[in-house]
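chain and backbone:
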Amino acid sequence: MTYAMEGAPGIAEDEGRIIRSRPVEVPAGFFKKEDTVWVQESNPLEGGEGDVKVFGEGVGLLVDGPVELLEYFVVD
């Protein structure tokens, strides 16, 4: 599945492509396969592929290229 992440023609046309779901461990904890979505970014204006972002259910962004989530808090 591919989708637009930004839509400013000629300025920012970033796209995301869901590439997998698999377990990931970051300093904030371990997330099971069924709780993650891995997205490969690309920008047709710059060519090539960008970083991979990993999102966790109920948490949000876990990994953005070399950056990993350190901690999070659940608010009731």
About this structure: Residues 41 and 54 are 11 Å apart (CA to CA).
